[in-house]
Amino acid sequence: MKEIVVISGKGGTGKTSITAALAYLAASEAVMADCDVDAADLHLILKPENLSSEDFYSGVKAEIDPDKCRSCGVCQKVCRFNAIVQKPDTYEVINLDCEGCGYCQEVCPFQAISLVEQKVGYCYIADSRLGCKLVHAELGIGADNSGKLVAKVKKDANRVARETGKSYILVDGSPGIGCPVISSLSGAAYAVLVTEPSLSGLEDLKRVWELSAKFNIPCGCVINKADINPHVAALTRGFLAEKGIDLLCEIPYDEDFPQAITAGFCLTELDRAKWEPRFTQIWEKIR
Fold it and tell me: Fewest CB within a 10 Å sphere: which of 20, 97, 126, 212?
């Protein structure tokens, strides 16, 4: 069983559209995992029916017991995040501002402060309309620790793949190079980098390749909207050749991308004759 992670250095390159099109072809041999937990949208195309739902807890926040608090104000003085405010008879923690460092708990002379583990999201295992399993998640509003939620999604996807005898886990990763992307790449056998021929697209491609190289993960690249800037497209090809990155495909700009998303379809469903040969070629190169 191998993990294939689709990532992009920046948002808006068509990463999820390309992942969904590959899912259409790989449905019989892959489990899907949506690891873009900060802004998950693969479910809009795959339309899953959740089989199970699990609360996800990660990180702690301070809570003040008003019955024990004596309004001494020591906690407010030491809080570097201005997360503690004074009320008429007690002090209160602003949950969104608290970083869970625990300093206030350490200095409270009345043991009125506790650190409470937070429910920051949900993780789902579902049947998708394509016939493959989809493991996806929902991060709570204002919640952090998205990298840990990604790790949970990948762990569940691995278990489901083993139980169902699938050969691949196809992961829709997050854009950028932050903690969720690092977590998405952990344990990957291959990374598909989706880029566009703009100056920002090229620079972000370089960054995400450097991240993949740190993990010694072989990479392939899809240049989407390849015809919008021929000069930068040529620079992108040069970078891929220099770094030994497989050029999987060049896709010209096409209004089918937003139309498919709006309709809730994969590209390969919107126009099978037009798109299935192209994405079959990409999938076979990846395999």
Answer: 97
Question: Are 132 and 110 found together in one domain?
Answer: no
Tell me the whole-structure pTM to 2 decimals: 0.87
Q: Which residues contact 178 (CB under 8 A, 6 or more apart)?
A: 147
Do the beta carbons of residue 150 and residue 156 sit within 8 Å? Answer: no
Range of the domain at 155: 2-47+128-286
Instruction: Please check whether residues 237 and 143 belong to one and the same domain.
Output: yes
- Say if residue 137 is in the same domain as residue 200: yes
The β-bridge relationship of strands 246-251 and 84-86 is: unpaired
Both 80 and 200 in a single domain? no
Task: Give the helix, strand, coil percentages of the chain, each rounded to 5.
Answer: 40, 30, 30
Q: Is the dihedral of CA 230, 209, 248, 273 positive or negative?
A: negative
As a whole number of angstroms, the distance between CA 194 and CA 35 comes to: 15
pLDDT along the chain (287 residues), means of 10: 92 92 94 90 91 92 95 96 94 93 96 94 94 92 80 95 95 90 93 96 96 95 96 97 96 94 90 93 94
Q: Which two tokens stand for residue 130?
A: 């394509």
